[in-house]
């Protein structure tokens, strides 16, 4: 904590685009939810999707659930920053919310697949911090999909079959976390966020801060 006589110093920085991917069921939504609850400086990028809403999901909070026609309209009018077909449905990131958050230096979290991560890396490399979550075993991945109890057996089988192509992209990410223990995985993500926030190339306010710091030197009383 800063001493009472030292006013808090704010150094302006660019916002983080925190991209989290994993095969379905590895735990990325659980980890993302914990992070959003604990760190109020991060907001979730709410994607649009053509997939059917799960029982536990709320329209506008977890996703914007839209028709295929509406999705195509958004995509064709460049309103999506990235988009992909995943497990037979369309998903995309609305552009405007991201541009507003980045301009204000706010951090945003993206729960998107490898195709989306690749598109964001290409377009906004300097701002993206990408994290891949792996399950400890494929048997455990399968159990988690069943324990989540939100999808039909057919949907679970599609997701398991697609897990290989998702996992094969693990090397394209900045960080890889093994989610065997949820608390440990969460702490690793917190550590990444903390470190990435103080990266030099993100903190454009540091130039003015250091200049002003050095301007003080000639005025210092000799002790
Ligand atoms: P994803 O978003 O990657 O598809 P979820 O976050 O929905 O996965 O997690 C799938 C299921 O696994 C959920 O029921 C969740 O509570 C559970 N889960 C997540 N992480 C762990 C863990 N480390 N150990 C045991 N169960 C977990
Ligand atoms: P789910 O149907 O389980 O919510 O998500 C299925 C997959 O789609 C997950 O890998 C999730 O990360 C991904 N996904 C969700 N939203 C988007 C998005 O806007 N763009 C992309 N490319 N993938 C997304």
UniProtKB/TrEMBL annotation:
One of its GO terms (molecular function) is ATP binding. Its EC number is 2.7.4.8. It is an enzyme of class 2 (transferase). Its main location: cytoplasm. ATP binds at residues 22-29. It catalyses: GMP + ATP = GDP + ADP. Belongs to the guanylate kinase family. PANTHER family: GUANYLATE KINASE (PTHR23117:SF13), GUANYLATE KINASE-RELATED (PTHR23117). Essential for recycling GMP and indirectly, cGMP. This is Guanylate kinase. It comes from Agrobacterium bohemicum.
């Amino acid at each position: 904590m800063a001493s009472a006589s030292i006013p808090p110093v704010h150094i302006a920085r660019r916002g983080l685009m925190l991209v989290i991917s994993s095969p379905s069921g590895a735990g990325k939504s659980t980890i993302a939810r914990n992070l959003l609850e604990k760190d109020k400086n991060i907001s979730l990028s709410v994607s649009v999707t053509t997939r059917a809403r799960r029982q536990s999901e709320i329209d506008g909070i977890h996703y914007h659930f839209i028709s295929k026609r509406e999705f195509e309209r958004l995509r064709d009018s460049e309103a999506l920053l990235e988009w992909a077909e995943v497990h037979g449905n369309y998903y995309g990131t609305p552009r405007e919310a991201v541009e507003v958050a980045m301009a204000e230096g706010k951090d945003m979290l993206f729960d998107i697949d490898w195709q989306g991560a690749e598109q964001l890396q290409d377009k906004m490399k300097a701002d993206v911090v990408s994290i891949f979550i792996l399950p400890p075993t494929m048997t455990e991945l399968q159990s988690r999909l069943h324990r989540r109890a939100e999808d039909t057996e057919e949907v679970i089988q599609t997701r398991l079959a697609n897990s290989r192509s998702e996992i094969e992209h693990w090397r394209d990410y900045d960080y890889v976390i093994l989610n065997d223990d949820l608390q440990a995985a969460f702490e690793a993500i917190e550590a990444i966020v903390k470190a990435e926030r103080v990266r030099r190339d993100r903190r454009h306010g540091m130039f003015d801060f250091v200049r002003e710091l050095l301007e003080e030197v000639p005025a210092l009383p000799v002790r």
